[in-house]
Design a protein that fits this description.
This protein is of the alpha+beta class and about 120 residues long. It contains three helices and six strands, in the order E-H-E-E-E-E-H-E-H. The protein has one domain: Alpha-Beta Plaits. The strands form two sheets. A four-stranded antiparallel beta sheet has the order 2-5-1-6, with helices on one face. Strands 3-4 form a two-stranded antiparallel ribbon. It is elongated.
């Protein structure tokens, strides 16, 4: 099997919907990482202290053939077309191990989609 990792940094108010829509599109789970980000615009400060925005980064390890569907689901449910709601990107995975508990579901999904 070939895998991709999808990394999504989304607005907190859309996070639950993003996770649900990604699972509906075929993701079998998510890892949530605490992250800070800085975009092209300077960060705001108050009395000399920088106001940093903490966000959660959602990490999905998915099969290659469903990655585009999951990314589209994240894009829509996270309202990523609107300014400041986040970003999502996808990277190839050379090797993944420790997925024994998810393999039956992944194999069934692959069979259902291809056969």
């Amino acid at each position: 099997m070939r895998f991709k990792v999808i990394l999504a940094m989304v607005n907190e108010k859309y996070q639950d919907g993003v996770i649900e829509s990604a699972k509906t599109a075929g993701a079998t789970g998510v890892t949530i990482l605490n992250a800070r980000g800085e975009g092209i615009h300077a960060q705001k400060s108050f009395l000399g202290l920088t106001m940093e925005s903490q966000k959660d980064m959602l990490l999905f390890l998915v099969e290659d053939f469903i990655s585009n569907n999951i990314m589209e689901a994240i894009y829509k449910s996270g309202h990523l077309s609107e300014h400041g709601n986040g970003i999502v990107f996808c990277l190839d995975v050379d090797r993944a191990i420790g997925l024994e508990s998810q393999m039956p579901t992944m194999e069934k999904d692959a069979k259902d989609r291809y056969f």
